């Protein structure tokens, strides 16, 4: 691919061996062949060569760790057997928008034992009668064809997204902590707040009772004083009554 050839002279074997993803979309091949890509990319897992006017995969290097290959919108019409030879661990293959017309061309993909998802959208082969049933019967290892399984359930966006979702869930669970810890803390807080309220109520009750006792004592004093005055008054009246008869008797004797 011409766009890739421009950078290959500065790409050492060591640097190339560290590349795991490579996107060459919209670069143009001078003769319909793959150019500038070699076996140095031994760690490559994702390769995209969409719309580069490829007609052949004959020069595809051995990429044993490649899992996803995007070849959409090219002019490929055959020669798919090279994929099983050079990229045996492919799980996803996109050949949409190419010149694939018959089941015989697709039959070469039977040797891709790990293939799970195949995209042939916009290829002439999709016009065949019972196209989907025929492909699923021919390639029994695949789960998704053109983004859907045999029951028309849509394929997930990617396996990586699912893995990231699981990791996020695990992180949330770890952050949340084991169940029960926060409940115990809440119970302790509730107990402390209840105790505080009780202490306040006790303080208020004591002061209130003390005030009542003081008032009761004052009332008792008033009541006692009043009683003494009444008793004194009654004593005076009694003495007067005693004196009066005595005085009357003395007058009679006189």
Structural overview:
The protein has 254 residues and is α/β, with parallel strands linked by helices. It has a domain at 13-145: Leucine-rich repeat, LRR (right-handed beta-alpha superhelix) (Alpha-Beta Horseshoe). The protein is built from 7 helices and 6 strands; from the N terminus they run ααβββαβαβαβαα. It has helices at 2-5, 13-17, 81-86, 103-106, 131-138, 159-176, 181-253, and strands spanning 21-23, 46-48, 68-70, 92-94, 117-119, 144-145. The chain has a 6-stranded parallel β-sheet, with helices on one face. Helix 5 (131-138) links the parallel strand 5 (117-119) and strand 6. The longest helix has 73 residues, at 181-253. The protein is globular. The relative contact order is 0.06. Residues 1-10, 160-165, 195-203, 223-227 and 248-254 have low confidence and may be disordered.
């Amino acid at each position: 691919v011409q766009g890739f050839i421009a950078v290959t002279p500065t790409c050492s074997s060591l640097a190339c061996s560290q590349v795991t993803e490579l996107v060459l979309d919209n670069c143009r091949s001078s003769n319909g062949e793959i150019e500038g890509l070699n076996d140095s990319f031994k760690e490559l897992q994702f390769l995209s060569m969409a719309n580069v006017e490829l007609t052949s995969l004959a020069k595809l290097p051995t990429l044993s760790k490649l899992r996803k290959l995007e070849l959409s919108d090219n002019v490929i019409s055959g020669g798919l057997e090279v994929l099983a030879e050079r990229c045996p661990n492919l799980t996803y293959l996109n050949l949409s928008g190419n010149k694939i017309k018959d089941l015989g061309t697709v039959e070469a993909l039977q040797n891709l034992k790990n293939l799970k998802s195949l995209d042939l959208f916009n290829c002439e082969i999709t016009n065949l009668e019972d196209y989907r049933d025929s492909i699923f019967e021919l390639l029994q290892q695949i789960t998704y064809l053109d983004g859907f399984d045999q029951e028309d359930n849509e394929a997930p966006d990617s396996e990586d997204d699912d893995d990231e979702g699981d990791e996020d869930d695990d992180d949330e669970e770890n952050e949340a902590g084991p169940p029960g810890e926060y409940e115990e803390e809440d119970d302790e807080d509730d107990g402390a707040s209840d105790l505080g309220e009780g202490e306040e109520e006790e303080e208020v009750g004591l002061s209130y009772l003390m005030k009542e006792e003081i008032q009761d004592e004052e009332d008792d004093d008033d009541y006692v004083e009043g009683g003494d005055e009444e008793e004194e008054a009654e004593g005076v009246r009694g003495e007067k009554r005693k004196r009066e008869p005595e005085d009357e008797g003395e007058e009679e004797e006189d």
